[in-house]
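Example 4.3 (complexes with small molecules)
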Amino acid sequence: MRQLKAGGCQVIPDATTEDFPLDALVINTCGFIHDAKEESINYILESLQAKEEGRLGEVLVMGCLSERYKKELEKEMPGVDAFFGVTDIPLIAAHLGVPYDPALATERVLSTPAHYAYLKLSEGCDRSCAYCAIPLIRGPHRSRPMKELLAEAGHLALQGVRELNLVAQDTSFYGLDLTGKRELATLMEGLCLIDGIDRIRLLYTYPQGFPLDVLRLMAREPKICQYVDIPLQHISDKVLKAMRRNTTKAETLRLIEDFRTFVPGLCLRTTLMVGHPGEDEQAFQELLDFVKEARFERMGAFTYSREEGTYGAKHLKDHVPAGIKRERYERLMELQKGNSLAYNRSRVGSVCSVLSDYLVIPEGRTRKPTVLGRTQYEAPEVDGYVILENAGGIVPGSIVKARITKADEYDLHAQLIDQ
Ligand code: SF4
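Answer. The structure with iron/sulfur cluster bound is encoded below.
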């Protein structure tokens, strides 16, 4: 988007049909799991319909789905003007008549609100999880040079970004391919030195070989959110082995203990998968017991889907019927609701810094605007909000002090404290 803008194009990061007519629409697709693929395809079909009705110029498709299934998609969707892979940014720019300028590679046009951004540390993945097609699509792990990441974060801070959310297929692997060591803590220390950045949040880590120096840094550095997102997927040794996760139940429990010891107030988020081949009722019960015991502050879940070309699709049997997968998913999420509510209730009465994300203006003149914000314990998009009622005058991007007054299952309510 930055390249197109520099080339004189007007860019809308997230177009909806209300923004049509547009000269061109670039659709960034996902090819991770069945539901994501379906969503991508449906959006392409809707866009082709708009093109046919003359409300849209060119339809261009990029990203994982397009990288993986280019030939098939070209055949099935002749109305698409061009398909691009995941690293074809210069080709997309050229297609739209804009010369690609490498000097702009660390500059961004954000698709998030102006005060937070995702910072992508690396591309690809060296793991071999049985269910996952990402290494097939994105290739082996390649860390971005630290200098480049610090430069990008510096540009983002100048644009008004206050919160950086660190992402990659596996953030805990950062640096191994560059220097032979995990460099995540060093990178995070460097990011803390950037003026204007107030929060750094760690997402998408991996349990095996988790760099514990990150936890030490988190415990002492106020800019680093006391928050770790670590998709654990399962706890049963039998299922972890079938998933080829390269870790065990005992190692996972030890790691969780380390998290709680190093950073006592930590907000731990995980993602789990139900219905993986080999997950019988006993293994699922083990997962339920684990979730009850570990009391994750945040948790999400997926049902397994058989992805073409993966180890799981080629070699694993014992596939769990769809109805049972769904039922297990619901039982797991129901259990987590209680954990989430207990965690939120434990925060009632505490004072926290809230970063305002959105201002919601109610209809009618009698009620004042509501602010939807987040503390260091809420990641954007996946976690709930801290809701500040009667909070007019607080612009998105500002950080205010508030006291938590009420807990819902996922959201919290708070009152501003006079500054
Ligand atoms: S760590 Fe496993 S699940 Fe995550 S991207 Fe790599 S292969 Fe996929």
